[in-house]
């Protein structure tokens, strides 16, 4: 009965989304007070019903209800409970239900917490959110029912993909989807503002927290997903320019540009049209990512390979929503009053340059991701991989870092070039010193430039704190400093990994050693081990560096349901990097293949990602606190 209850909740949520859309349209068109008052509760109940449907799906997975087709295809009674729990969204239908659940909860949260927008604009925003939800409810109910029964019920399921049997599955998709869906809220705000012709600083201040939330979760999701792939796939790489990885990067790039743009609009009443367009583009990238993952047109370790009909359904939704929003933008942009002007040499000018460069990188990633797909449609098979992206996007990304370093040093409205150069003396000196220090070991052009610019950006990032009373500095300023500093830290990690990684592939017998970087790694022996739902051959490696030694235990695992072999890496993390080890196959002569990497300072990549997300959180808390203080002052006045 739990599956039927979940399906009923899903139908009711879809019906309420349709009702919410109709009521919002009536309220905006006719301004009827009784209809306006009812839209908020409907949005809240819709979100609750979507959550109940998701809870029902998790229940049938935890209960190993083999009468539900999705459970049979993606679970097994012998699986540990955490993989049954996370397995509820480790598949096409379940992940789409999670997507829709977060979408419904986001709409309910807007209905509960948003109080600063004019009522008519808020209702239009909730109507746009309902329109998005309605399309995805229809997709689930008519194309991807997660609660479909199977008769007769088999004795057990087929199991979960072993590559997904990792705690990362419980964290990564919900985090990433929260970021995706958060951009739908920004999109709905933009549509609502266009419908009511209410594009201005108040609209931007209302939208900014939702953009920040989406951006924070996207940052966390991408960072966590990168590390998950890094240790799980056994390739020793943290980013492969996989099309599905790009599908998460593109919304992040657009959201980063939108975040800067909406800040200019909220604080300086500038970039009105640019902010609306970026809100549409950011959600468009989320929709394109959803299409790529679920259309069946990609072969990727991240993608859900499904039939093309489902992909066509999502493509139709993308065309409807994005096409409709662009048509609305074209029709109403002439009514959007121009904001305040500013000189090119100003903080606003720096933010515009930042956004343009982000947009160029977004365009490169989009073209590089879609071009092979389009070419395949014409019978031409080709691949676009790291060489293209690194050469095309790398130099522009470094230019973006340079602009980012200068940005916090600029004044609002207008500035003097000579004064900016004087303020930038510290970052320039730091970058030059690092560049000169690296010349004798010459790591390559891009890593050399990356490490140099990372040093300059690190110094420039703390510039907003110079000569200030740190106790009185706003929390959101600390957030900006930490986020920019996190980018410098991540860039240093990326450049170090690219420049200084050492790799060794050897075949050794027990007792023999191999050298990689500063470590000597000895194979002590191979022993069989048994896990909860797998068996493995486990290597015992002794890694020596100087007078110290550590034990690592990489495994070659065997899963029965479904039958799969995987390599489980063993990683030694120290202050100056990571020793990454993988056990390969025997060669039939008593030797075992070992893949060893020494990766100096690679952990800075994920440390920086965490710093960026925490910086976003501090900015969010600081902005919310300031808005509350302003509201209290106005109420007392």
Automatic annotation (TrEMBL):
InterPro entries: CcmF_C, Cyt_c_assembly, Cyt_c_biogenesis, Cyt_c_biogenesis_CcmF
Protein location: Cell inner membrane
Cytochrome c assembly protein domain segment(s): 89-295
This protein's record includes keyword Membrane: yes
Pfam families from the UniProt entry: CcmF_C, Cytochrom_C_asm
Domain Cytochrome c-type biogenesis protein CcmF C-terminal stretches: 315-623
GO cellular component: plasma membrane
GO molecular function: heme binding; heme transmembrane transporter activity; lyase activity
Membrane-traversing stretches: 6-29, 41-62, 96-113, 122-142, 177-197, 209-229, 249-266, 273-293, 313-335, 356-380, 392-410, 422-442, 448-466, 475-495, 601-621
Membrane topology: Multi-pass membrane protein
Cell membrane found in the keyword field: yes
Domain of life: Bacteria
One GO BP: cytochrome complex assembly
Keywords: Cell inner membrane, Cell membrane, Cytochrome c-type biogenesis, Lyase, Membrane, Transmembrane, Transmembrane helix
Function: Required for the biogenesis of c-type cytochromes. Possible subunit of a heme lyase.
NCBIfam families reported in the protein's UniProt record: PRK10369.1 (NF007691)
Family label: Belongs to the CcmF/CycK/Ccl1/NrfE/CcsA family.
Record-given protein name: Heme lyase CcmF/NrfE family subunit
Organism: Sphingomonas ginsenosidivorax
């Amino acid at each position: 009965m739990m599956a039927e209850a979940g399906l009923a909740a899903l139908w009711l949520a879809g019906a309420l989304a349709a009702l919410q859309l109709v009521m919002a349209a009536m309220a905006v068109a006719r301004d009827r007070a009784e209809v306006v008052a009812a839209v908020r509760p409907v949005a809240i109940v819709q979100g609750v019903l979507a959550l109940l449907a998701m809870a029902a799906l998790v229940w049938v997975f935890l209960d190993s209800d083999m009468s539900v087709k999705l459970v049979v295809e993606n679970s097994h009674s012998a699986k540990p409970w955490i993989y049954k729990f996370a397995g509820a969204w480790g598949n096409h239908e379940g992940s789409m239900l999670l997507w829709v659940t977060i979408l419904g909860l986001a709409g309910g949260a807007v209905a509960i917490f948003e109080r600063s927008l004019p009522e008519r604009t808020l209702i239009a925003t909730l109507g746009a959110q309902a329109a998005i939800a309605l399309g995805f409810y229809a997709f689930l109910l008519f194309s991807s029912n997660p609660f479909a029964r199977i008769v007769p019920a088999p004795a057990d399921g087929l199991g979960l993909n072993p590559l997904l049997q990792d705690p990362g599955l419980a964290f990564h998709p919900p985090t990433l989807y929260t970021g995706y869906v958060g951009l739908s809220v920004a999109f709905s705000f933009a549509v609502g503002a266009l419908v009511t012709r209410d594009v201005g600083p108040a609209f931007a201040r209302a939208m900014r927290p939702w953009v920040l939330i989406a951006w924070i979760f996207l940052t966390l999701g991408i960072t966590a997903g990168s590390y998950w792939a890094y240790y799980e796939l056994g390739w020793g790489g943290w980013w492969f320019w996989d099309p599905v990885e790009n599908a998460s990067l593109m919304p992040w790039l657009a959201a980063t540009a939108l975040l800067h743009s909406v800040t200019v609009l909220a604080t300086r009443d500038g970039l009105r049209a640019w902010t609306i367009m970026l809100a549409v583009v950011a959600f468009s990238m989320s929709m394109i990512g959803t299409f790529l993952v679920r259309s069946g047109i990609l072969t990727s370790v991240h993608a859900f390979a499904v039939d093309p009909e489902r992909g066509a359904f999502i493509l139709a939704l993308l065309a409807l929503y994005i096409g409709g929003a662009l048509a609305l933008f074209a029709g109403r942009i002439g009514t959007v009053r121009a904001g305040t002007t500013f000189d090119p040499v100003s903080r606003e000018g720096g933010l515009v340059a930042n956004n343009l460069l982000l947009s160029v990188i977004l365009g490169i990633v989009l073209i590089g991701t879609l071009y092979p797909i389009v070419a395949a449609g014409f019978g031409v098979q080709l691949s676009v991989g790291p060489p293209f992206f690194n050469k095309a996007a790398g130099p522009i990304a470094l230019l973006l870092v340079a602009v980012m370093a200068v940005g916090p040093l600029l004044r609002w409205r207008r500035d003097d070039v000579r004064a900016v150069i004087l303020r930038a003396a510290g970052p320039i000196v730091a970058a030059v010193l690092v560049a000169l220090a690296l010349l004798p070991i010459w790591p390559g052009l891009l890593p050399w430039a990356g490490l140099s610019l990372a040093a300059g950006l690190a110094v420039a990032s703390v510039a907003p704190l110079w000569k200030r009373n740190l106790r009185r500095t706003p929390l959101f300023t600390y957030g900006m400093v930490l986020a920019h500093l996190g980018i410098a830290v991540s860039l240093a990690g990326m450049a170090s990994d690219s420049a200084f990684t050492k790799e060794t592939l050897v075949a050794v017998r027990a007792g023999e050693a191999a050298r990689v970087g500063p470590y000597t790694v000895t194979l002590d022996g191979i022993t069989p081990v048994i896990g909860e739902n797998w068996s493995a051959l486990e290597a015992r490696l002794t890694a020596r560096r100087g007078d110290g030694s550590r034990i690592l235990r990489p495994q070659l695992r065997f899963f029965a349901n479904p039958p799969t072999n995987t390599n489980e890496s063993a990683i030694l993390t120290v202050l100056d990097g990571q020793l990454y080890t993988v056990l390969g196959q025997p060669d039939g002569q008593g030797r075992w293949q070992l893949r060893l990497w020494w990766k100096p300072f690679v952990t800075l990549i994920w440390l920086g990602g965490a710093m960026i997300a925490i910086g976003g959180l501090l900015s969010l808390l600081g902005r919310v606190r300031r808005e509350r203080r302003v509201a209290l002052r106005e109420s007392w006045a």
